[in-house]
Amino acid sequence: MNRRVAAAPAKAEKSAAPSPAPRAPAHERPRARAWREHHSRSFRASLQRLMGRPGATALTLLVMSLALCLPFLLWLLLDNARALGGHLDDARGIGVFLKPEVDAANAKSLADTLRQRTDVAEVVIKTPEEGLAEFRAQSGFADALKVLQSNPLPTVLIVTPKIAATSARSAPTIVDELARDKHVDQVQYDALWRQRLDAILAFTARLAGVLAILLGLAALLVVGNTVRNDIAGRAEEISVMQLLGADRAFVRRPFLYTGLWYGALAGLCALILIGVVEIALATPLGQLTSSYGGRFTIHGLSIVQALALLGASVVLGWLGAWIATSRQLRLEQPQ
Amino acid sequence: MIRFEQVSKKYPSGQEALTDLSFELGAGEMAFVAGHSGAGKSTLLRLVALMDRPTRGQITVNGQSFAKTKARHVPRVRRGVGMVFQDHRLLMDRTVFDNVALPLEIAGCSREEIGKRVRAALDKVGLLAREASAPVTLSTGEQQRVGIARAIVGKPPVLIADEPTGNLDPMLSAEIMKLFAEFEQVGTAVLVASHDLNLIKRMGKRVLVLDHGKLIDDFRPAPAPRTEVQA
Q1: pLDDT band at residue A84, thresholds of 50, 70 and 90?
Q2: pLDDT on residue A166
Q3: Which residue, of A189, A208, A238, is where some domain finishes?
Q4: Hey, of B110, B122, B143, which one would you mutate to test binding to chain A, going by the most A CBs within 10 A of its CB?
Q5: Which of B6, B17, B120, B125 lies in disulfide reach of B43, CB 3.0 to 4.6 Å?
């Protein structure tokens, strides 16, 4: 500390010698430079102060980074679940189970009438034979099915409504109309459970948002409290500076940089934590996704998301320090 | 430089610290504020430094009427008032140089100018060789001199000191007081609170005598030094 201070003015003099404040009004320039110098000094000094008490700093950073990474992990999970949901878009088809007595010709004429409709994109006829073959291939009930004397499966029409005709939330009107048709035994609309999944995802998204706000608030309080303690520990220094005519911005500056550092370092810690969690979960998740035949893949945090986390963390740190200094410095102001 | 017009200060506790105080101190004038402890010396200096506001009356320092000074302009007013404290209030985690440089940093001086002016101030108080030392390694008298260097480094038009020799032996006290008298000669208004009557007497300066918050004497020395001082 001593050495740095003694050397600083000499260095400044040397560096200033070749260019004695060109351009700009002579009285304006040094002031702006002094301001910049105070910023860079606060920037460095606040980091040195944090490094000066590694234990307390580490604890603060750990709490902050945990608070930051939890909502991000939940959000990541949600994002992946959404990607999984995206593969189920084809589940929008309406399964129309015809009555057993409806024969192939009737089924075909019904399909043709349906194809005329403006809100129908496609109709596929699945005969009982096709259905049985499919059932045999998929369900592993091949042996059990052999026991059956006749084919119990009805003719099924797979009706795909036009995208525009299916409003986001409600089932298309065609579902009701089909259910009333005399040839139709049952209408199965898979989009219903898809809607349910959407609702679950929306709920989880909201949950992640609420958690992010709560935990962000916690991070804010952690920084605020740390800076408050810092201010209390430097009350004499602050009081002397105020007596010497330091304004609020001057007194506040080093503390704001402290908050900034806490935010940046906690953001980095949170990224590392998320990375560790991703590595720890990689193997079991890989097994899980491969069991789905590799139809979807798990993705981690993108660069943009990582930067967003870092940015949010820095803003939280700065804001926490700002709130703490606003409160404390108002109390310190002798009046 | 400093003008008090019928100033009274009553603390929230109900204690009347100053009553109807009026005086004026010009540029390049030095005065002592004398009186027993509790007479209101510190309150008077606190009012000059805008650490407190008067309950009644007008205070003008450096041409600035305090009644019209908003809270956000208080720092600017304080930069025009150099302050020396009994316990010097140096920042112990900074070097002598950094302590003295603080008012200039606050005022927004450039590094080069800070270097020049801090060394000039330290030279003035005879501590140029100690600029890189930590204040704790200095004697009490030296620490107080650093405090004075810090108060004068910004060349404030007004210099106030609250019992600056309170912790010093008589010889060091006399040295410190002589230092203050030097600033008077460069046009600074100097106001020093002290209860050391012997010392005040020897200095032969104007003395404002307070008793229970009232100004009971404004003693100005005749051109020829006098020895009589009222308590």
Answers
A1: low
A2: 47
A3: A189
A4: B110
A5: B17
Domain boundaries, chain B: 1-80+158-223, 82-155
> How close does chain A come to B121, measured CA to CA in Å?
15
> Final residue of a domain: which of A157, A189, A221?
A189
Q: Is the pLDDT of residue B21 over 90?
A: yes
Which residue of chain B comes nearest to A240, CA vs CA? B89
B103 in A contact zone (CB under 8 Å): yes
Instruction: Flag whether A11 is in a domain.
Output: no
Report the half-sphere exposure of A213 (CA within 13 A, side-chain side).
5
Looking at the structure, do residues A324 and A211 belong to the same domain, yes or no?
A: yes
Exposure string of A162-182, with b = 16+ CB inside 10 Å and e = fewer, is: eeeebeeeebbebbeebeeee
Whole-number Å distance between alpha carbons of B149 and B143: 10
Interchain pair B79, A244: CB under 8 A: yes
- pLDDT at position B199 over 50: yes
Give ipTM to 2 decimals: 0.88
pLDDT of residue A179 exceeding 90: no
Residue A18: inside a domain: no
CA nearest neighbour of A245 among B135, B108, B228: B108
Number of separate domains in chain A: 2
CATH superfamily of B1-80+158-223: P-loop containing nucleotide triphosphate hydrolases (3.40.50.300)
Distances (CA, A) of A255 to A59, A83, A147: 18, 43, 80
> Does B52 sit within 8 Å of A35, measured CB to CB?
no
Tell me which residue range forms the domain holding A275.
40-86+197-332
Cβ distance A335 to B52 less than 8 Å, yes or no, reads yes
> Per residue in A105-150, pLDDT tens?
888 888 888 888 877 878 888 888 888 887 777 666 667 777 777 7
